[in-house]
Amino acid sequence: MANLSRSNVRLLGLLKVIYDAGQISRTDLVEQTGHSPFLVSKMCDELLESRFILETGPGNSTGGRPPTLLSIDPKSGKVVGLHIGTFNARIAITDLAGTLLAFRKVRSHVETGPDEALRQLNAEVDATLRQAGVAQDQVLGIGVGISGVLDRSTGTTLFWPKVPQWVNVPVKQSFTERFETVVEIEDTPRTMALAERRFGIGKQAPEYVYVSVGAGTGAAFFLRGQMYTGGGGFAGEFGHVTVDETGPLCSCGNRGCLEVMVSASALIKRAQTAVAQSLSPNLWRLSGGNLDNISLELIGQAAVQGDRFARSLLHEAGSFLGIGLVVIVNLLNPTLISIGGALALAAGQFLLPAVEQVIRNRALEPQAAEVKVELSELGEADWARGAALLVTGKALEASFLKSRSHRAT
To answer: In a structure prediction context, what are the per-residue pLDDT tens digits for the chain, which is 409 residues long?
Structure first.
């Protein structure tokens, strides 16, 4: 940046504003940057000529001719998003506009240990690139969402409570050495929240909380439009809010944390017990009588079919989740809470009423009246797209700087 001319610094700044907006008119660029209409028009023409941006059609008219919207040119680069979960991994190849080019869902194999799992995940990324027809040297960055406690400065997983072997694992280094590109890692609820903020219902909410409920439970906070990560970067450990002091022991040492009351493993274990005791005929039929076949998806299917046990189980999970969310509602006063993750995908419609009821009954009335609780509409491919967003901005900047250096030589 220090070697860039003033005009190139302004161009890069304008490019970032266009990227952050997704789509924006020249008039709004003038308002947001403070540059004159003439200068903004000139810079946009240069970025159009360089093929960093393109015109995507007319915007909404406030009277008169509709404005022409600008966005990042999808052909300006490719990035990889990798969402690593306890059971599965999701891999997405996107362009710098976030368009999905290829997606694969595979087993994460994290239980085999970090060395073997990372070897396989690197190979799966290679396979997904081939599926997208993208050469390895075209990849401008790889974003990795992974559970556990992270050292983001080094890209290391310090420990992962659900997978004890993952202690001080250099995740970033593994992908950097294989692909020789920019790699960033982040906690999965945050990468999922980035996707919600960019592609989903979180676009317009400056005070917004994303809650992920699946194999684990976590949260990400957007305050005044910016993600809040806390002093040490560990904000969002929502799964360790106690909701039942007499509940099961959690890996953190406390009892009755959300992590052990609403996680996938907890609900599946309770469903298995119910099937063994002949308390859920629908689940027994759906699973073929095999307890190992019981999943969140089957619990959701049984609930749809009217199974009393499945509906009761999900209502209770929603109530516990609501108790935890009351703390967030009272403390942060968000305008939107989005609930996503595997459990929300499988059975969100049975969770949401219980969550809303508990918030109405327990949260302070002004905060409860202002918050809207909604199920995320994003799917598993979007979780990986969220991981890609970790590096998209940096990749765009790197591509711009490279083009400027070529012009100068």
So the answer is: 446 788 889 999 999 999 988 889 999 999 999 999 999 999 999 999 988 999 987 877 666 678 889 998 888 789 999 999 988 999 999 998 889 999 999 999 999 999 999 999 999 999 999 999 999 988 999 999 998 889 988 999 998 888 889 999 999 999 999 998 999 999 999 999 999 999 999 887 888 999 999 888 999 999 888 899 888 888 888 999 999 999 899 888 899 999 999 989 899 999 999 999 999 999 999 999 899 999 999 999 999 999 999 999 999 999 999 999 999 999 999 999 999 999 999 999 999 999 999 999 999 999 999 999 999 999 999 999 999 999 998 888 888 888 877 665 5
The yes-or-no answer to whether 6-72 and 76-188+382-404 have a common fold is: no
Task: Give the C-alpha separation, 377 to 199, whole Å.
Answer: 10
CATH 3.40.605.10 fits 76-188+382-404, yes or no: no
- Architecture, CATH, for domain 6-72: Orthogonal Bundle (1.10)
Which tokens go with 187?
A: 């906690």
User: Residue 211 to residues 67, 69, 206, 222, 370: CA-CA distances in angstroms?
Assistant: 36, 32, 16, 12, 18
Annotated domain spans of the chain: 6-72, 76-188+382-404, 201-377
DSSP single-letter state for residue 66? P
pTM value is 0.88
